[in-house]
Amino acid sequence: QVCPGLRTPQVPIWLCSLCGRHGVLFGTNSLLLSCWRAERVFHLHFYSGQQEQTKPCHLTIDTHSHHWEEDQSEDPSNPGRRRSPMEMAIRTKWAGATVSWNGTEPFF
């Protein structure tokens, strides 16, 4: 029997399997579960326990960004341009969102 606290978490949390490795993506703002206005700009944390993760990973998600706000140094028509699997997973929930790694080198 699973207790109600585990069936309905107090904060948003996702178990991720990216490229065969597992991790936890979570937010500390409980409003993300109940208020769509909280989904404008918010923060998520990611922990994988992998050796590649040398420090805490704090991501900033902006769901109302525009294509002209992206890094202009990258050519969007370049077929070699790739997003990290973490960013693609986040975009399954928030399509078109931009993900800022806040100085952390994407390790996924």
UniProtKB/TrEMBL annotation:
EC number: 3.4.19.12
GO biological process, one term: protein K48-linked deubiquitination
Domain Deubiquitinating enzyme MINDY-3/4 conserved as annotated: residue spans: 5-103
Disordered as annotated region, ranges: 65-86
Keywords linked to the UniProt accession: Hydrolase, Protease, Thiol protease, Ubl conjugation pathway
Any Pfam family hit: MINDY-3_4_CD
UniProt GO molecular function: cysteine-type deubiquitinase activity; K48-linked deubiquitinase activity
Catalytic reactions of this protein: Thiol-dependent hydrolysis of ester, thioester, amide, peptide and isopeptide bonds formed by the C-terminal Gly of ubiquitin (a 76-residue protein attached to proteins as an intracellular targeting signal)
Function: Hydrolase that can remove 'Lys-48'-linked conjugated ubiquitin from proteins.
Family: Belongs to the MINDY deubiquitinase family. FAM188 subfamily.
Protein name according to UniProt: Ubiquitin carboxyl-terminal hydrolase MINDY
Organism expressing this protein natively: Tricholaema leucomelas
Upper taxonomic lineage: Eukaryota, Metazoa, Chordata, Craniata, Vertebrata
